[in-house]
Amino acid sequence: MNREITEKEVKREKKKGTGPVRGDLLLLAGVLLFSLFFWLAVRAFRSEGAVLSVSVDGEERMTFDLDRDLDYLLETEYGSNRITIQNGEVSCKEADCPDKICVKHSAISAAGETIICLPHKLVLEVKGR
């Protein structure tokens, strides 16, 4: 009843359970296809923005067309932010807030995108016409 285990059997046992299985590869392919489809759908239905709405403390203070380039220093009772519109994209170039998250945010251009500066209670939102 005692039989010796051969080298071939040891290698076969080690090989079991390692490496991708066909089901794993199919699942990975499905996730990648779904992600690609979702990304394409978002890109296809995204509408370009036309107007920048500037709100401070929940109140809309001004709007700017994205058609024209602009460099505007907004000074409020909470602090100051430099807002820039260039080639239809909005960014916050400077701020005197401590964390500067608004300055680190990438430029926005599509309707519904926002840049928010919490310490200054500032919301920059791109809106469609």
Features:
single chain, 7 strands, 35% strand, 4-stranded antiparallel β-sheet, 3-stranded antiparallel β-sheet, 129 residues, alpha+beta
Commentary on this structure:
This protein has three helices and seven strands. With 129 residues, the chain is an alpha+beta fold. A four-stranded antiparallel sheet has the order 2-1-7-6, with no helix packed on it. It has a three-stranded antiparallel sheet with strand order 3-4-5. The N and C termini lie far apart (84 Å). 14% of the residues are buried. The mean pLDDT is 87.
Short description:
By secondary structure, the protein is α+β, with helices and mostly antiparallel strands. Helix content is 29%, strand content 35%.
Cα(first) to Cα(last) distance is 84 Å
Q: In DSSP terms, counting alpha (H) and pi (I) runs of 4 or more, how many helices? A: 3
Supply Rg: 27 Å
How many strands?
Answer: 7
Q: What's the helical proportion of residues? A: 25-40%
Strand numbers in spatial order across the main sheet: 2-1-7-6
Write the topology of this structure.
Blueprint: H1 7-15, H2 22-45, E1 51-56, E2 59-65, E3 70-76, E4 79-86, E5 89-95, H3 101-104, E6 114-117, E7 122-127
Antiparallel strand pairs: 1-2, 1-7, 3-4, 4-5, 6-7
